UniProtKB/TrEMBL annotation, chains A, B, C, D:
It catalyses: N-formylmethanofuran + 5,6,7,8-tetrahydromethanopterin + H(+) = N(5)-formyl-5,6,7,8-tetrahydromethanopterin + methanofuran. It is found in: Cytoplasm. Gene3D superfamilies: 3.30.70.520. Pathway: One-carbon metabolism; methanogenesis from CO(2); 5,10-methenyl-5,6,7,8-tetrahydromethanopterin from CO(2): step 2/3. Its EC number is 2.3.1.101. The gene is ftr. It is an enzyme of class 2 (transferase). Catalyzes the reversible transfer of a formyl group from formylmethanofuran (formyl-MFR) to tetrahydromethanopterin (H(4)MPT) to produce 5-formyl tetrahydromethanopterin (5-formyl-H(4)MPT) and methanofuran (MFR). GO terms for cellular component: cytoplasm. The lineage of its organism: Archaea, Methanobacteriati, Methanobacteriota, Methanomada group, Methanobacteria. Pfam families: FTR, FTR_C. It comes from the Archaea. Keywords: Acyltransferase, Cytoplasm, Methanogenesis, One-carbon metabolism, Transferase. This is Formylmethanofuran--tetrahydromethanopterin formyltransferase. The keyword Transferase applies.
């Protein structure tokens, strides 16, 4: 299969179930909302080593938010509900509550259940907190030094999908990187998805375990390393490819992740030098979701 | 004491010892280095609830870095050396190694000891890693999908100072916020310091424990809340003040934190509406450092 | 009239007819499109002294552009059609054609007429230019050093409205400035409008002519200067107001400008410290449009 | 000559004399100063079609500015002194005076002469302006709606150098673009220089006149167009090069431009895929300066 002259490999991205929360962070200005959203979603590339997978989903203009102020929707994810509950409490409490002029609203449609983040954070008010209603939502108003922080009582959580992914294969590293940025730009406009790695882009591809160091749970996927093309047997990089980047996608459900993968492929094939689009899987035995690239179109 | 017509309260910031690391993140472009530095220092406002205190210290132009590429120096801090070792491993491994085109170099002068972050991360190369030398430093080159990640074998750590702080008291919330941004801008140019809260600014002031909820370790400092001025006995906010923001500073040593506090005060008093500068302490019994505001000048 | 406790003065913004163009600048990435859009709309606050009034209208995701790449819609305006034709040629030719990976498409709905910007620019190709079709549009492809620049043959122009405006009156300068930023954020989401001043915000208010210097066509409106409140007779600033900022809006038609003014007022009244919203006019004898604030609601 | 394995062609950049001004724009925050500096230097890539060549030279921290606030130094250039005088008046008057919280100071060392920009702008104060002294400088304080704008009475101008340049030749367009960004990052740290094109990068290379259209003063340099490699006789692009970008540099003097070119080459050769560095000239008969690449090292 080819799109715009670029080969789309007949393979699938192997994705996993994950617990996903989705919240709206508003502030007095777009810039202030971005600062809080960025702090709250940092150190959140992969649950392999980070306490959560997190990222900014999209911007919401003031005309469309419950409090009429500009905001960013962020997603925070963890395999484990209890850990997700903890992460919500700390990331909202330490990174958004502490930020200037912010408020937090639930933004998850069709949640499986609710985390009581706001209900727990209100105690920080030491008795001076108040319960109010905004747009039909139960909100706790907590007095802080600089003003009142608003947080919705409950934040919705649902079983989503992590590890949706695309491999971009290009003629040079720079072509791959430029295409990766274009892919991230395209996925930004797909609601209910994030690309949790730095700038949305993954420079490293891993394999499960290690051939040489038995104590390791994961190590570099040597068959996909551009600088090892001539040194490794069974290299999976085409001869004419010297730039490989991965995009990892988490979403509120399978459809969202698939829409993001589709948008990503359509963006990548428009960048000169992109030669092939592929995806990563582990043979299909680990993850619950097999997202076939050809089925996206 | 007055500077530029603004009262500088005769008080002190009570600061604490913390273990500090300081590393340089370089990349092909300034923008790519910033992306990695931001991801690695997110979720890092306060060790009360975050796994580390972290932030960007300063930009280093390509002319002054070991590999001749643009970079940002970041600081990652924790009270506990073992936890700091863990945070370095994960924040570098998950947030910088995974980012496009990056490298990591030690940037700590006069370290007390070294963490072997690079020495541990190299195993990710699964035998394909190489040891090289750059600028007299021992560097591990780890092949990744998109190219080779370079990381210095050891990263210096030293006993630094956390919790240096300033309270900005202004006529309105917006004046306080504008001054807070000006303070952060000024501290950016003081080497060896970070302002770890979102955008460098703290909207919430805490007290130890809680009057009403005995299970809480910390709660809002109701005597410093602008919206509780009329409701709380013993309110410590001057009558004409309605905007209060705090800046928290971590540094490699006491001198760096003091230089940052001085630069911060000098910036704040230039913003119209700033009426008083103060600092936060807990009576002087908790922290090892008492940084008196008047002694800064 | 009051909204959210803020007085909306019973007055009108006096606006003027202007010739407006609206074009879409796409590029390989969002960042590259922003760079070109910013360069092309600089030095474009007011035709009083700038060769055009110009600004960014909105971002368009790759899913919605003719070439499937991310883009920004910009507006370039001048009272005079011939001058606008010149500005289009130079701003597109010098600031977008020269920028990396860009293309330019018409984005004006219901134009009165067309400027042949693309038809003129194609000659730069010195015979190597080609005419192609994208999405039913006639496009010229001009070979450059770094690749081919695409530009639509004709760019639509119509009689729009300049000088729509709001005056924000707040308790302090910082409150006014924060509100101004919030207003600009809100207007960003109103299609067909720009706020051409730096960051969308005007710090200076002018009157026609000068009392003291007869050679001047415009001078500071001393009755609206916060630092002259006690020195000028007939000062029009309320006693409790010390922060005044203006937002100037240009739009493709009267409805767009009115929608922007409405969105701006709704955003401003949510910022603490905003006491009154007003607008600027010259008695109603100069501009063709009288946009009454009360009529917006 | 080779640096880091990249061929440095034995050629020279042909540069021209230009009148250069250099001013410092300060504001309450770094962000506000950047907004004004960006607006004032827009529409300023080349005097061929723009009313000036303009750009941001560098950031100056509050500790080093006359008014203790953060600022950006910008440069505004024109071949003609009278036109430069006009541009200074309009760009400062329309794009900086109108911006929130700004001030303007002279930042030109060793000027040949002075433009009386501040002396002319003061009349806008309509008699309410005041002359003050800051740091030994004569400053006019002009009351505006939002506060007082400060501008130095005279701004220094000197004979500088325009059109210093580098050609980056890389394996692919994306490699060339990434290297171009790295070059711009490096030149940012060379004081007294700007890269006036969008993002500092030029995608188009021109030749004087046109072969086909006699009415044109300049047209695409078809021998340097990557997409015409197979179609044009005498193509000057090496066979293995498919990415060509140019960096144009203006500076306060020849030494500054040479330092920028040197820094640019050193940055470019570190980007994978860069194959050759060259420069543009017109045979040496047009410009007064011949900046030989080999002489830089």
């Amino acid at each position: 299969m080819e799109i715009n002259g670029v080969e789309i490999q007949d393979t699938f991205a192997e994705a996993f179930g994950i617990q996903v929360s989705r919240l709206l962070v508003t502030a007095a200005t777009k810039k202030l909302a971005k600062i809080a959203a960025t702090e709250a979603t940092g150190y959140g590339t992969s649950v392999i080593g980070c306490p959560a997978e997190a990222g900014i989903d999209c911007y919401v203009p003031p005309q469309e938010t419950p409090d009429g102020r500009p905001g960013y929707i962020i997603m925070i994810c963890n395999m484990d509900k209890k850990k997700l509950d903890h992460e919500l409490l700390e990331r909202v409490g330490m990174c958004i509550l502490t930020a200037a002029t912010t408020a937090v609203f639930d933004a998850m449609k069709n949640p499986d259940e609710k985390m009581t983040t706001g209900k727990k954070l209100k105690f920080y008010g030491d008795g001076y907190e108040k319960m109010i209603e905004i747009d039909g939502r139960t909100i706790h108003s907590i007095p802080l030094m600089a003003g009142d922080f608003l947080v919705e009582e409950e934040l919705g959580v649902r079983s989503g999908v992590a590890g949706g992914n695309l491999f971009i294969m290009a003629d040079t590293p720079a072509s791959g990187l430029l295409a990766a940025e274009a892919v991230v730009n395209a996925i930004e406009s797909v609601p209910g998805t994030i690309t949790p790695f730095p700038g949305g882009i993954v420079a490293s591809g891993s394999k499960v375990g290690s051939n040489k160091y038995k104590f390791l749970g994961a190590s570099t996927n040597e068959k996909m390393c551009v600088t090892l093309k001539d040194d490794v047997e069974g290299c999976q990089i085409p001869t004419n490819v010297d730039g490989v980047y991965e995009i990892v996608i988490d979403g509120v459900d399978e459809d969202a992740v698939k829409a993001a993968m589709k948008a990503g492929i359509e963006a990548a094939v428009k960048v000169p030098g992109v030669l092939k689009m592929s995806a990563g899987n582990f043979g299909g035995n680990l993850g619950a979701y097999k997202l076939n690239l050809h089925d996206l179109f």
